[in-house]
2-dehydro-3-deoxygalactonokinase
Amino acid sequence: MVVSFAGPFLAVDWGTTNRRVFLIEGGQVAKTERDDKGVTSVDDFAAEAVAIRARFGDLPMLLAGMVGSNIGWQVAPYVAAPAGVAELAAGLFWIDDRTAIVPGISTLVGRRPDVMRGEEVQLLGAVAAGLVPGDALLAQPGTHCKWVEMADGKVADFVTAMTGELFALLRKHGLLAAQLGGEVTLGAAFLEGVEDGKRQDLAASLFGIRAAKMLGQRDDADAASYASGLLIGTDVAARLAASKHDAVHILADPVLGGFYAAAIQAHGQSAYLIDSHAAFIAGINEIVSQ
Amino acid sequence: MVVSFAGPFLAVDWGTTNRRVFLIEGGQVAKTERDDKGVTSVDDFAAEAVAIRARFGDLPMLLAGMVGSNIGWQVAPYVAAPAGVAELAAGLFWIDDRTAIVPGISTLVGRRPDVMRGEEVQLLGAVAAGLVPGDALLAQPGTHCKWVEMADGKVADFVTAMTGELFALLRKHGLLAAQLGGEVTLGAAFLEGVEDGKRQDLAASLFGIRAAKMLGQRDDADAASYASGLLIGTDVAARLAASKHDAVHILADPVLGGFYAAAIQAHGQSAYLIDSHAAFIAGINEIVSQ
């Protein structure tokens, strides 16, 4: 690592729709701000970097997330899994001599191409901070849920499921949209969906939501919870079937993380919720200390 | 059956978006017309019936399809599977003494609620006409693909997969839409999708379409064919895993039917394409002859 990150520095978790800036001093967060200036709402990234330094200090800056994608500032090429902190540090993409982007990770294990960009900092930080073991199955639920096999403290392999996006599409468009307007709660309907998700037969189980309505079997007030349980449960069933672990460590906000935890527990496995912000800071510190 | 269908009569296959009217004389189609007056574009069904009789003859009329649903003329209650021609004939819903709606079929086998309305005439007609055996697995691909277990010439059980609707949603909305604009063709990319569909891991395999693009592994021109193969292949994999047969009889237009046939053959099973219009007429004739 270049000497420029030895003192205080700025870290930016720059995603598609949101951005969080951290001023890090002595490994601790001295100041932080979150806004909605994700990469899709930014045209001039250099000007944004100037503005960030004007607010947080004229310091070296480490960027992570979609800012390094083809819709971001510049493309930081993926490093191939297995990848740890050393590989990320070696693959930093330098915009200038004090501004760098953390690369994403790609995998091609088992003929399944997959990519991540942004999640890698949290994942490796969670291990570095001792929040999760170096050999474990991690989940990062969201629009696209990442399921990550960590081995020897590195990202060994991973798979992304479009679970959150499918739920959003079904709530907004198509046959089921009118039924899925209700709030998702962690109750009997959700767990019934998780149970039916064990079939791993999503396209058919989804139609069952319509059929249950036609046959008077389920109130539409419960349909969204059932659908969420079905989608998350199908995702969990597929991942646990391929897992050699008996627990999953979840990096997510408590609500969504709680839904995944309930589905994992319904499969008889343990689920641990991990603080993803702490993991991100630990990951950034680990990269700059290489 | 009442005597009113003993002579010439009218049969109407009245779906959500389209309608087909047949004048049937001596069991044969004497005249037919197809238009886009599906139930969603009709307000006054009684007036439509008068108009049909004005064009085709003042005859008894048998209606099938969504015309008997809660968005149709009047609700013809489902009859429960197992159901054959006799059960449909006994369950006819009479609008007046010479106008009847064929009921749909419902199932609750194995805690899986499912419904059909309109497909039942084709299914039972295919058996009645000797186009398929009385014990067989039938598929009716479409927006919602019906998979039907026929036993002793009756609809014994069935499951509906939202395969076509999911494909349409993904082509129009969300992350993959920009990649899926291409034409679907029955080539290597489609068959690769069918192969990956054997994993029955749809939400994750779909994200692979994005990842393959990011890693330069597949041209977007092939992405739609791959996605179609993946969706149809996942559907086929789930159904064949639960099937006791070694063949599937497909009621569909030749293009979509051909896609399903290729996926079924990729699983080492036989696929037979059946003329769905001939099956419908045979089914209607069988119902009126009860």
Notes: Residues 126 and 279 of chain A are 5 Å apart (CA to CA). Residues 161-274 of chain A form a domain with the Nucleotidyltransferase; domain 5 fold (CATH 3.30.420.310). Chain A touches chain B at residues 78, 106, 108, 111-115, 144, 159-163, 165-166, 168-170, 172-175, 199-204, 206-208, 210-212, 214-215, 217, 231, 234-235, 238 (CB under 8 Å). The first helix of chain A runs from residue 45 to 56.
